[in-house]
Amino acid sequence: xxxxxxxxxxxxxxxxxxxxxxxxxxxxxxxxxxxxxxxxxxxxxxxxxxxxxxxxxxxxxxxxxxxxxxxxxxxxxxxxxxxxxxxxxxxxxxxxxxxxxxxxxxxxxxxxxxxxxxxxxxxxxxxxxxxxxxxxxxxxxxxxxxxxxxxxxxxxxxxxxxxx
Length: 164
What we know:
Elements lengths: L2 H24 L8 H7 L1 H20 L1 E7 L6 E2 L2 E4 L6 E8 L2 H14 L5 E7 H8 L5 E6 L7 E3 L9
Parallel strand pairs: 4-6
Antiparallel strand pairs: 1-2, 1-4, 1-5, 3-4, 6-7
Helix pairs in contact: 1-3
């Protein structure tokens, strides 16, 4: 398993745990929940999340991902996942990227169920190049790592390498 995949899984685990604890404390009366006290009580976990996210930003910059494209159109198009807001007219999107062939294969199965007439092919591309390709598009949010299996998106503006 790649280091990036390990980091994202650890991030998701800590984040889910914090969300469950917050929901348990909120209970039925949201007015009684002291968010400031909760954040202070779990400061170590939030610090750890920030450190892991920062490391993910670096890993994504140089990681070679598998990207999936629709091979049935005249021009090969990279699959994008639309995130629409009912209140706004624009449709923002993320590019799903995969850490290994097994994750890409799982996603392709889901894509085939949704878009039966399409055929999909895989290519490899470095994270920083994918972000650069879409940087000027105002609707581009970022990269969805191992989507739709995982619910983890890294904002395109966050992808960087501190050493450059």
